[in-house]
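INPUT
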Amino acid sequence: NAGVTQTPKFQVLKTGQSMTLQCAQDMNHEYMSWYRQDPGMGLRLIHYSVGAGITDQGEVPNGYNVSRSTTEDFPLRLLSAAPSQTSVYFCASRTRTQETQYFGPGTRLLVL
Amino acid sequence: SQQGEEDPQALSIQEGENATMNCSYKTSINNLQWYRQNSGRGLVHLILIRSNEREKHSGRLRVTLDTSKKSSSLLITASRAADTASYFCATDASGGSYIPTFGRGTSLIVHP
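OUTPUT
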């Protein structure tokens, strides 16, 4: 199994541009989530999904959209990038019955 | 807001010493997990303790949970330089989304 994969590893955007961060898992996990990590702030939950077709907001959802059309994929869309969205983004997944989360390697995003 | 808060924010010790990190949280939980993050990498699950457990061991790791004080501690015994990393507690709140929320982390440096 590849586990949780994220692409791209690094991205530079200009203010106002849009982009999609990709996340995929091959473990048939029902739950998937997106976090952002900023220095001194730990991980903050952006959006999460408990199954295909079901998504919900986390702690810091503004400026981000998600969809879950398949069990495997959970893309995160930045609608109009802002410098405040400069961060490292982590995708994670877990099964419905096991609490352990598996994290992807992260995407470093720089918004100029 | 973040559920768990780790203390201290930073810890510097010599190889062979024990390292103790604490986590406090605000609301009732189903379980508490500890994760490790090496610099620039994704998080890796270390250990989970359920709300009805008081102590758990895994190799050189010992976790305690005091639900009356809403706190947990992670003890790493006989630390090694390879233990240098950031450590995060994550809580799975009772009646919550089943997606854990993370604290800001403790940065541990183990000097050889």
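end of record. Chain B touches chain A at residues 1-2, 30-31, 33, 35, 40-45, 48, 88, 90, 92, 97-105 (CB under 8 Å).
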